[in-house]
Design goal:
Length: about 500
């Protein structure tokens, strides 16, 4: 398949943002690899402010110098879907729409993910499919750098949750030989795939140690609070979904809504809050996992801004926890400036109305546990999205930790370590064979319990310890999600692209 970008066909679209009509040119559904396995999930769409064609410039940029904003739509390691700039399914203006308003070229790639199977019932979205696809999209842009809109040397990636992990991986694994066999398999262009900057909202990374991290933070808390996904039967009927179709979603007695098309899933599936308690056995597993984490943290040799070593004591306290606490205090300080009533929390210490400290255990109680033990590498069916993304071509779920494998109840095999490595940026940050992004922006909300705050902290520290600038913050009163501070996001992009 020829991988040359041609302008035709295209459409001219418009959207209204901030009371201003933004006209843009849309080049949609361009396959970015020569041998696609799933063309629908291996294509990209390019959106360009029409002013570049009509006036030549927008502010300081023109058609060739405008930075490229590349968001991905991956969540829960499900496939990245096609999304035009505009209003998303939550009724919120997309970051890509704001990017167009500000004069950036927007590239939205799709990518493979869990739940995708080919005609032979082969899993085609398992590790490292999503990352390989996004790399192939970047290579396509570089292959066409002389004719494609935008500056391919200033690509800024953006993603949330598993998509945040993909953004972190794109920023830390550029041009690494580990991915070459997979890129050749799909016929990716023979180009570079490093990026200029990576924006990562609540990245789900360091999966081979995430269960330990979760119990280090939430251990000793038996009650967990989560949202269960259920079908709104009335909405299902309105959208022509039959009981037979819903029954087909069940997997070992549990519904797998990832099989539904993204748009339909948002119409008929609702989140219902539930509170449950862990079993006695899960309590034992929690205790054992928490005990394992200090040794792992201490092995990383992390350092703070003053070159002080950050470590954990056997009881889970220590300088690493103190570093995270300082980031939380920064969050509290900003919350005060934003007129939050922080004095409603009796566990926060103040001096002259400024937060200066807090009770760590009370803060974790405030956050609340969301997931039972193990949080990621489940001991058996139905498995987590992470068990599925580490599946093989024929096996739907595999363990990606030794702990999960040793406590297996479903006969799942263990993933080879070299495969687990492919989805963990920590293995590449210090590797000279990987070209790293020049800037990272990482956000993890103070109310985000999908993973421990330790995970985003380690990613931040590992990057900084390797001389890579990171803008890291823990926004107060913010849960698991992304693109909630687009004003600050694009201010950061403006500053790094000057």
């Amino acid at each position: 398949m020829e991988l040359l970008f041609r302008e035709d066909p295209y459409t001219i679209e418009s959207l209204v943002f901030d009371d201003k009509e933004v006209k843009f040119r849309a080049f949609e559904h361009r396959i970015y690899c020569a041998d696609p396995i799933d063309p629908e999930h291996q294509e990209l769409s390019i959106y360009v402010p029409e002013e570049y064609y009509e006036e030549g410039t927008t502010g300081k940029y023109d058609l060739r110098t405008a930075p490229i904003f590349m968001p991905n739509t991956i969540g829960g390691f499900r496939p990245g879907y096609f999304q035009r700039p505009g209003i998303d399914h939550h009724g919120k203006v997309t970051a890509s729409a704001i990017a167009l308003y500000l004069g950036y070229v927007v590239v939205v790639p799709t990518a493979r993910g869990i739940g995708l199977k080919d005609e032979f019932d082969i899993n085609i979205g398992v590790v490292p499919a999503a990352l390989v696809d996004l790399k192939a999209a970047i290579r396509y842009l570089r292959h066409n750098k002389d004719v494609i809109p935008g500056d391919t040397e200033r690509i800024i990636t953006n993603g949330t949750s598993a998509g945040g992990a993909m953004s972190a991986l794109l920023g830390s694994t550029g041009n690494h030989p580990d991915f070459e066999p997979y890129l050749k398999e799909i016929g990716a262009c023979d180009e570079r795939d490093d990026v200029f900057a990576a924006s990562c909202y609540c990245p789900i990374t360091d999966l081979d140690h995430a269960d330990m991290a979760y119990e280090w933070e939430f251990g000793g808390r038996n009650e967990y609070h989560m949202n269960k996904l259920v079908v709104n039967e009335e909405a299902a009927k309105e959208n022509g979904v039959t009981e037979e179709m819903l029954d087909s979603l069940n997997h070992n007695g549990h519904p797998d809504f990832s099989k539904l098309p993204e748009e339909l899933r948002h119409k008929i599936v609702e989140k219902v809050p539930v509170t449950e308690n862990m079993t006695i056995q899960q309590g034992y597993l929690s205790r054992d996992l928490a005990k394992m984490y200090p040794a792992y943290i201490n092995s990383l040799n992390l350092r703070d801004e003053r070159e002080n070593t950050l470590q954990l004591n056997p009881d889970g306290t220590g300088t690493f926890r103190a570093w995270i606490a300082r980031q939380v205090i920064r969050s509290m300080e900003k919350a005060v400036l934003d007129d939050y009533n922080m004095k409603e929390y009796p566990w926060i210490d103040f001096h002259n109305d400024r937060p200066v400290g807090f009770d760590w255990e009370a803060f974790v109680d405030f956050r609340t546990r969301m997931k039972p033990t193990p949080a990621f590498d489940k001991t058996g069916e139905p498995g987590s999205p992470e068990n599925k993304v580490f599946g093989s071509l024929r096996i739907d779920n595999r363990h990606f930790t030794t702990f999960g494998y040793l406590h297996d109840k479903s006969g799942w095999p263990k993933v080879p370590a070299e495969i687990v490595k492919l989805y963990n940026p920590l293995y590449y940050i210090a590797d000279p064979r990987a070209t790293k992004a020049k800037n990272f922006r990482i956000r993890a909300g103070a109310l985000d319990r999908d993973t421990s705050l330790a995970v985003s902290s380690i990613l931040t520290l590992a990057l900084r310890n390797n001389s890579i600038p990171v803008d890291y913050f823990i926004p107060w009163d913010t849960g698991h999600g992304g693109d909630y501070d687009t004003g600050d996001l694009f201010l950061w992009i403006r500053n790094i692209t000057r």
